[in-house]
Amino acid sequence: MIRKELRIILLSLGISLLLTLAKFAAYFLTHSVAILSDALESIINVVAGGFACYSIYLTGKPKDANHPYGHGKVEFFSIGFEGAMIGIAGVLILFKAVQYFIIKPELLQIDQGIWVISSTAVVNLLLGLYLARSGKQLNSITLSGNGQHILTDAYSSAALIIALVIIRFTGQTWIDPAVSVVMGVMILRKGYQLMRQSISGLMDETDMQVIDKVIEILNEHRHRTWIDVHNMRVQQYGNNYHIDCHVTLPYYLELSQAHEEIKAFEQLVNRELKGHEVEFFIHVDPCIPALCQYCQLSECPVRSHPFRHKITWTRENVLPNRKHAVD
């Protein structure tokens, strides 16, 4: 899988480099600041693509003594770096646009510029869609982040084409820096979103969608001996997840029986959470009499209270560090 990701990102890097050269050629033909803005953003595509290559290579390395959870966290550095580069490009674009408001340029060969930018926009659109789809299929946030960036580039190029066509037929050159300002703001927003995603991953912010999926799996395939699950925490390392939780089992189970129950718990989630490898650290709690009220083990030989009702696991009762109590 890692080799496939590398092939995809290397393809993206090569295409981005060619498109960047084409956009700079269009800028030198037309002297359009909006085209220059598009070219500057494409430079970021190339730089970010190079960092993404290294990120995917590092993610594929096995766990070692210094990295017991693997190297997957580097993907969050990758999208953070890409977000920072996008932000820098946005600032440069806004700065250049302000300059062109003050000193109005003479635009040349608009027709050629339109054709060149149109061609790069189509290629970027196809490449961005391919990267986004591949990132989803391979569960790679690096590919997905790179795809989102390139799609943003394609959309901004589309807006640029519209502006160039209007300038071509109206001669209103002020539209050129105005469009550049809009593009700069859009690019800054995308950079912020990627930085936010990076910080969330590095700070181990809980992905509630993953939590909900794991809880859904456990509710659907619940063993009667799994009396209680609580204190669940999820950390993401690239394409892998690390989950800590407490599982309450009948206190009279032998060690080998408890081991088999926990093994079944781990295998269930790994089987149903397709496309991800999940590592568990599970703390086993012995049951207490208060839990009999919702324990579904009808043949329990030590039951001290009658069964009252089943508790459906939700994020509200699985995440806190306490056993589920029934009043």
Here the CATH topology of the largest domain equals Alpha-lytic protease prodomain-like
From the N-terminal CA to the C-terminal CA, the straight-line distance is 50 Å
The global form is elongated
What's the CATH architecture of the largest domain?
A: Up-down Bundle
Figure out the total of helices. Answer: 9
What strand order characterises the main sheet? 1-2-3
What class would the helix/strand composition place it in? mainly alpha
CATH-assigned homologous superfamily of the largest domain: Cation efflux protein transmembrane domain
Unreliable runs: none
Helix content: 55-70%
> Can you count the beta strands?
3
Query: What is the CATH top level name of the largest domain?
Result: Mainly Alpha
Largest sheet: 3 strands, mixed
Total individual domains: 2
Q: Averaging pLDDT over every residue, what do you get?
A: 81
**Percent of residues in beta strands:** 5-15%
Transmembrane segments: 40-58, 79-102, 114-132
Family: Belongs to the cation diffusion facilitator (CDF) transporter (TC 2.A.4) family.
Domain Cation efflux protein transmembrane: 9-203
Main location: membrane
What is the fold's blueprint, element by element?
Elements: H1 2-30, H2 33-59, H3 74-102, H4 110-138, H5 141-170, H6 175-202, H7 208-220, E1 228-237, E2 240-249, H8 255-272, E3 277-286, H9 315-318
Helix pairs in contact: 1-2, 1-4, 2-3, 2-5, 2-6, 3-5, 3-6, 4-5, 5-6
